Amino acid sequence: MDMTLTKRNFIILILIVSVISSLGGGLVGGLLISRTQRPSYEEVQEPGDDLDSELFPIASEENTLVVDDTDIETTITGVVQQVGPAVVTVLGNVDVDPAANGGRSTAEVSGSGVFITNDGYLITNEHVVDGARDFQVILQDGQVKEAALIGSDVFSDLAVLKMNDPAPAFAALGNSDMLDPGETVVAIGSPLGMFMNSVTSGVVSGVGRSIDSGRGYVIEDLIQTDAAINQGNSGGPLVNLAGEVIGINNLVVRGSGRGTVAEGLGFAIPSNTVQAVTNQIIATGDFLRPYLGVNWQPITPSISRMYNLPTDWGVYVFGVQPDGPAEGAGILENDIITRVGEIELGAENPFINVLFQYQPGDNLQIGLLRDGEEITIELIAGGS
Q1: Of the listed 110, 234, 271, 335, which one is catalytic?
Q2: Of 57, 88, 124, 199, whose Cβ has the fewest other Cβ atoms within 10 Å?
Q3: What is the pTM assigned to this prediction?
């Protein structure tokens, strides 16, 4: 029996030693792992901790994260830097109700404008200068300069002013016929006459829009954009991402007039119209508008491919106005005008630019495509 107890005690002793060995091995192994896979200094250190510098090494200049200042410049930033110095605030004075003492009372009006030549010619809207005098322009750097009205055209809502001094910068006019809906555009101007050279961006929402001016006539072939335009932005440039002026901002629609409120409905005069009108005003001080009496949409290679048209360049006639020169000469809806006089329409010869080389009363030879056939129609340009 003593031997049995001795054997049993021996077995129990072996089991106890085994358990102690396992626990000890686990503890030592855990400590080794903890020394091999140390937590990072950033994970455990709190301000004021007194830590083992071997287990938790103090950060040095070699392992400190350094964040550099980054010069962030986007395409829009570059466009604004390029065109911004050519944009001005336009100021003028208009007569209002006579003062009580019998003197003349005046009020200040404001808009925006953009230099298009280095000798000081700038564009704004006709409605900005209408009835005003004593014009001044405020440059981007805050200088105030005198300016004179050269001429204006009420139907395109364009006017040309000239500053006596050379322009600090001028902007190039692009080809508005090449615009496609969805293109990014930037509007620069002075909303409310206070926030000079404000920048907004958006897209071309549509082209070829017609809007009732509220002054007894319709302004045609406008660019629609959702870039924010407010009172005071009138006359400022609408710019593409190449830094070209492709429109002059002229109005915004806030609603339908029947209680419907709208946002993001801004409109601009296309640059091809701007160029044709202002070139004549600068040359003669006036603008005589030849008139055909058609509603039209420009054709470009992309539009031609989209609609499988027989020509890459021209204008599509989608309406003929009653009793106008075109109707009298026999131009029909769905005709495509490809030539005016001897000039073929194309990328370098947009329709408006070519047409506005003529005067009211001129005899014009109009080249057409009708049902795939080339024909020529003669008409006398009307005037407006």
Answers
A1: 234
A2: 57
A3: 0.69
